[in-house]
Amino acid sequence: MSNEWLILGPAALYMMSMTLTPGPNNIMLTASGANFGFRRTLPHMWGILGGCFLLFTGIALGLGLLFERYPTIQAALRWIGSAYLLYLAWKIASSPPPNLKVREHSVPFTFWQAAAFQFANPKAWVMGLALMAGFLPENGQPVLNALLLAGFAEMVALPCIALWAAFGTAIGQWIKSDGAWRAFNITMGVLTAACVVLILR
Fold first, then answer.
1. Cβ distance 9 to 107 under 8 Å?
2. Cβ neighbours of residue 139 under 8 Å, at least 6 residues apart?
3. Separation CA 15–CA 90 (nearest Å)
4. Gap between the Cα atoms of 27 and 44, Å rounded
5. Nearest CA-CA partner of 161 in 21, 43, 62, 66
6. Distances (CA, A) of 122 to 49, 50, 176
7. I need a labelling partner for 95 at 20 to 30 A (CA). Which of 116, 141, 169, 191 fits?
8. Helical segments of the chain, H only
9. pLDDT of residue 19
């Protein structure tokens, strides 16, 4: 291994600190785990990882420069992302208390929905920009380096975001009354909506 790749240790610590802390993805994974269970939340988790992989790779190959050159694109994406996040917050807050019949007919976040959301997720952009600026090796093939670093980052992120889904699943087994379920879903919805402040500030 090249000495340049010795920075994978610090890169792993950086990704752990970013993916273990609260943000839109982790709040929604908690809500999904509670309402749908861990297994049905897996497509949501894999969508986050896949979307971030594409986003991080794109940043390394010049996507960030495109936003710097055309700031109107970034502004439009921020407003679209904010509107979509508010819609998701409303869906979470208005979700009925889950029961077997409701769960079977409810639809959790899909892989493609979660993947697409990463391109409007401010925390994903911050992670990708800092990751590629701070840890991408300068020598070697740029495309291969970007793919390897983005793939490594998502390997580190997987158990971190899985903890949030598992946390939500545990909460779902603990909450028993309909009133407690409504309070939980409203709280998750409000926290999701509060993330819009990160996008528009």
1. no
2. 2, 4
3. 29
4. 12
5. 21
6. 15, 16, 34
7. 116
8. 8-19, 24-36, 38-58, 64-69, 71-93, 100-105, 111-117, 122-135, 142-174, 178-194, 196-200
9. 93
**Amino acid code (one letter) for 123:** K
- Name residue 88's amino acid: L
Q: How confident is the model at residue 4 (pLDDT cuts 50, 70, 90)?
A: low
Per residue in 7-61, pLDDT (tens digit) is 788 899 999 999 998 888 999 999 999 989 999 999 999 999 999 999 999 999 8
CB 72: neighbour CB atoms within 10 A? 8
Q: At 109, which amino acid appears?
A: F
**HSE of 56 in the Cβ direction (CA atoms, 13 Å)?**
31
Token pair 């979700």: residue: 95
The pTM assigned to this predicted structure is 0.84
Q: Kindly indicate the confidence band of residue 100, based on its pLDDT and cuts at 50, 70 and 90.
A: very low
